[in-house]
Amino acid sequence: MNETRVIETNRGDRDDEQLPSSAVNSVFTTRGLTVYYGDFRAVGDVDLDIAEGEITAFIGPSGCGKSTILRCFNRMNDLIDSARVEGSLLYHDIDLYDDAVDPVAVRRRIGMVFQKPNPFPKSIFDNVAYGPRISGIRGSMDELVETSLRGAGLWDEVKDRLDKSALGLSGGQQQRLCIARAIAVSPDVLLMDEPCSALDPIATGIIEELMGEMKKDYTILIVTHNMQQAARVSDRTAFFTAEADEATGQRRGKLVEYDDTSVIFSNPADERTEAYITGRFG
Q: To the nearest 10°, the Cα dihedral for 214, 124, 147, 104?
């Protein structure tokens, strides 16, 4: 993936900022990344370097800020009125929270797949074509839809019913359709927020196998409560926990440890990580 990455800006008097992806190995770099909801600090001081072409898993107990941090990477927290993001989050050395950066353009480059499959009440074809159409992508829409469905491992199952409602697909097929919809606009990164939690074991296995194939083309960040899944699919793992504030008693998320997945699961540096992965808490 050596093409130039572009993040569009809101400034009409300047060119798009550009950086060749080969210039750095880290897709994202965060320093002191902190998220507030009003005056409440939900999770804070997160330092991460997310490598290109890898799967990075976020694990930890409920309420530790995994999904909150994940949503920072494509500015989904902007849609929550009370949310405020502090610290630094760079994407290919571009500050994603610079006032000049268009969050809509960010979400085209950094796609997201949610916990529950959410296909549009449209045909299978129109679900995949929706993003490219509103983005003004030109070329053969038939070819783009086929390529996206093949990329999500779904083409052979739906090629004869592209005009049928996406709501008629199984849960696992719907989730792969959502992946196809995400990659149809040619993103650089895919964020996955517990993408298999609503699926049966067979569908989960298909999605996990698909992620392994997709990391050749995309950098993937996944939030999961399934530690076995994190161990199976990810290259690096970040463990978060939630601790009670001494003054208020409110539970705040924090990053405890970030390392190669093999290290996190076999020889973690922090006893809290070991306690979590061995089931002693969480």
A: -70
| DSSP conformation class of 35 | E
Distance (Å, rounded) from C-alpha 197 to C-alpha 76? 20
Collect all residues with Cβ–Cβ distance below 8 Å to 60 and sequence separation of at least 6.
66, 239, 240, 241, 242, 253, 256, 276, 282
Strand 110-113 vs strand 251-260: parallel, antiparallel, or unpaired? unpaired
Stated as kind and residue range, the H or E segment containing 171 is helix 171-183
Q: Residue 48's CB: how many other CB atoms inside 10 A?
A: 20
The crossing angle, in degrees rounded to 10, of helices 171-183 and 201-214 is 20
Q: How far is CA 176 from the centre of its chain?
A: 15
- The backbone torsions φ and ψ at residue 279, rounded to the nearest 5 degrees and listed phi first, read 85, 15
Are 161 and 191 in contact by the 8 Å Cβ rule? The answer is: no
**Pick from 265, 257, 269, 243: which is nearest to 41 by CA?**
243
Q: Is residue 42 within 8 Å of 253, Cβ to Cβ?
A: yes
Cα separation, 52 vs 217, in Å, equals: 10
pLDDT one digit per residue (tens) for the chain, 282 residues: 333 344 654 433 333 333 333 334 899 999 999 999 999 999 999 999 999 999 999 999 999 999 999 999 999 999 999 999 999 999 999 999 999 999 999 999 999 999 999 999 999 999 999 999 988 888 899 999 999 999 999 999 999 999 999 999 999 999 999 999 999 999 999 999 999 998 999 999 999 999 999 999 999 999 999 999 999 999 999 999 998 877 777 889 999 999 999 999 999 999 999 999 988 765
Cα separation, 234 vs 55, in Å, equals 5
Residue labelled with tokens 């994202």: 28
State how far the Cα of 178 lies from the Cα of 211, in Å rounded to an integer.
Answer: 13
